[in-house]
Amino acid sequence: MSLPLTVQIVAPDRVLWSGDADFVSAPAADGALGLLPGHESVLALLRAGAVRVRAGGDVTEFPVEQGFLSFDANVVTVVVGGRH
């Protein structure tokens, strides 16, 4: 079994979500992005849509207007702007 993703989703004023997850999807500027453990490193601008985090059987969704996503060594950091 592979190691989980370590995920942190942050807004300018607070942490929206932090924890381990099995899968993260995000609306990247150049298309939908899906991340599983072991994915290659990514730095992506985000467009309007939703970031989805699957942890166990639960899926949590975070609407985003803009932001960016960084992924390296199974660590996902999402920085979002706009209202949350």
Task: Summarize the structure in words.
The protein has strands at residues 5-11, 14-21, 23-28, 31-35, 42-46, 49-55, 58-64, 66-72, 75-81. The chain is mainly beta and 84 residues long. The chain has a single domain (5-81), classed as Sandwich (ATP Synthase, domain 1), CATH 2.60.15.10. Strands 2-1-9-8-5 form a five-stranded mixed beta sheet, with no helix packed on it. The chain has a four-stranded antiparallel beta sheet with strand order 4-3-6-7, with no helix packed on it. A hairpin with a 2-residue loop joins β6 (49-55) and β7. The chain is globular and about 35 Å long. It starts with a strand and ends with a strand. This is F0F1 ATP synthase subunit epsilon. GO terms for molecular function: proton-transporting ATP synthase activity, rotational mechanism. It comes from Miniimonas arenae.
Order of helices and strands: EEEEEEEEE
Q: For this structure, what is the CATH homologous superfamily?
A: F0F1 ATP synthase delta/epsilon subunit, N-terminal
Q: Would you give the CATH topology?
A: ATP Synthase, domain 1
**Strand residues, percent:** over 45%
Give the number of DSSP strands: 9
What characterizes the major β-sheet? Answer: 5 strands, mixed
> What's the helix count?
0
What is the share of helical residues?
A: under 10%
Number of domains: 1
Oligomer: single chain
- What is the molecular shape? globular
Average pLDDT for all residues: 94
Structural class computed from helices and strand pairing: mainly beta
CATH architectural grouping: Sandwich
Classified by CATH, the class is Mainly Beta
Terminal CA distance: 34 Å
Organism: Miniimonas arenae
Keywords: ATP synthesis, CF(1), Ion transport, Membrane, Transport
GO molecular function: proton-transporting ATP synthase activity, rotational mechanism
InterPro entries: ATP_synth_F1_dsu/esu, ATP_synth_F1_dsu/esu_N, ATPsynth_dsu/esu_N
